[in-house]
Design brief:
The protein has 10 helices and 21 strands. By secondary structure, it is an alpha/beta fold. The protein has 3 domains: 62 residues, Nucleic acid-binding proteins (OB fold (Dihydrolipoamide Acetyltransferase, E2P)), CATH 2.40.50; 176 residues, Rossmann fold (3-Layer(aba) Sandwich), CATH 3.40.50; 111 residues, OB fold (Dihydrolipoamide Acetyltransferase, E2P), CATH 2.40.50. A hairpin with a 2-residue loop joins strand 5 and strand 6. The longest helix is centred in the first third of the chain and has 18 residues.
């Protein structure tokens, strides 16, 4: 282990502060730009991981973290609570710029970033790890940032909606009715009809009826057994299970959605592909504009719900995007909203080779690094606009909307 005094220069993707010591880049969690600290670090080839031994001088942007678990349990759910909110926004815009420049080989300025109207209690979904200690006791919570195998008992999560936490308190009290397993995961997500619970793990669940009775605030209960598909266990109220999910951050989600629709409509498309379409929140309003929309979604239930609301002339394909895109092309505009892993390499290859190319690609990304990688695979498109949305305050996560047009356009 090496020791040094360093100054924190910036924030890296993932939320760690960046310093330099002995000619090596050192990533130091829970630091802010402008901090001066004495650290311990261990070199790993071309970079090092460090920890603060002593904060010698804190940056002006430093604040006392609100969350007890962030301070005491080293909770890994948030990464930036120790920084003022305006500094968090600057850091995220810098992460996007650095990723697109370094990985994507695109020369861009830090994008404008839309702030969240709520910095706390905005999350409509919370997933927790559940670990059995003995027959009667469980630890239910999150992982420390420096020990992803450990779990600490959660008392509160101040970025999560109180209604979600109320359901979680009922789940914790219903532990006698959990599936017989030593480790489980579960999520609670608000829906338009109430709250949906998804239990993950176990091979049998004889007490699932009793569990649902005990969790009275849940309107739908799903179970994903080990190595099997998710199934609906029980529901309360009409159409509770199929009620659409709310955005994790409702206010920012609405702004992002409106912006995506605006950018798509700006190209006056007659045909459009909505890849990774979900239940059709974007595909349906565009189809109702008179655009011929092909929605591609791998979740068959979501694709069916989307298809049921699409007007005549538009349709949904229940398949992976990499398997269905070729038969959906050509299109005037292609919307891309992939998971954190980005698009499959076959998708970027098809879009790079398509003749004639779409007038525009509108790429919604939740990870600047995979966005940058995918842009590097599609050099024929230039960035026409770039905007960020702070869907997840207090964390290092950020949503980016990147509008791409063919280089000759």
């Amino acid at each position: 282990m090496t020791h040094a005094e360093v100054s924190i220069e910036s924030i890296a993707a993932g939320g760690d502060g960046v310093a330099r010591a002995d000619g090596v880049v050192v990533f130091v969690p829970r630091t802010a730009p402008g901090d001066r600290a004495r650290i311990s670090f261990e070199t790993r080839k071309r970079f090092a991981r460090g920890e603060i031994d002593e904060l010698l001088a804190g940056a002006q942007s430093r604040v006392n973290p609100l969350c007890y678990h962030y301070r005491v349990d080293r909770c890994g759910g948030c990464q930036l609570q120790h920084m003022r909110y305006d500094t968090q926004l600057e850091a995220k815009a810098g992460i996007i710029r650095d990723s697109l420049t370094r990985i994507g080989k695109r020369s861009v300025a830090a994008p404008a970033i839309e702030a969240s109207d709520k910095q706390w209690r905005y999350r409509s979904k919370l997933t927790l790890a559940m670990r059995r200690r003995d027959d009667a006791h469980w630890t239910i919570g999150l992982h420390p940032y420096d020990d992803p195998t450990a779990v600490f008992q959660l008392a509160d999560c101040p970025i999560t909606d109180d209604r979600v936490l109320a359901v979680w308190r009922e789940i914790m009290s219903a532990r006698a009715h959990f599936p017989p397993a030593d480790e489980l995961r579960a999520s609670v997500q608000l829906t338009e009809g109430g709250a949906s619970v998804v239990m993950q793990g176990g091979n049998t669940w004889p007490a699932r009826g009793a569990f649902f009775q005990a969790v009275s605030l849940a309107t739908a209960l799903w179970w994903r057994p080990a190595h099997r598909a998710r199934m609906l266990v029980a529901e309360r109220g009409a159409d509770a299970a199929s009620a659409s999910f709310l955005q994790v951050n409702r206010g920012v989600g609405a702004s992002l959605h409106a912006y995506v629709l605006e950018r798509a409509r700006a190209h006056d498309p007659r045909t459009l592909i909505d890849a990774y379409a979900g239940i059709g929140a974007t595909a349906i309003p565009l189809a109702r504009d008179g655009v011929r929309v092909v929605a591609i979604e791998s979740d068959r239930d979501a694709a069916a719900r989307c298809a049921a609301s699409l007007p005549e002339g538009s349709y949904a394909i229940p398949a992976k995007v990499e398997d269905a895109l070729a038969r959906a092309l050509p299109a005037d505009v292609v919307l891309i909203n992939p998971p954190r892993t980005g698009v499959h390499e076959h998708v970027s290859a098809m879009l790079q080779a398509q003749e004639p190319p779409p007038r525009a690609l509108v790429y919604v990304s939740c990870d600047p690094a995979t966005l940058a990688r995918d842009l590097a695979r599609m050099p024929r498109y230039r960035i026409a606009s770039l905007r960020a949305f702070d869907m997840f305050p207090q964390t290092a996560h950020v949503e980016t909307v990147c509008e791409l047009v063919p280089e000759a356009a």
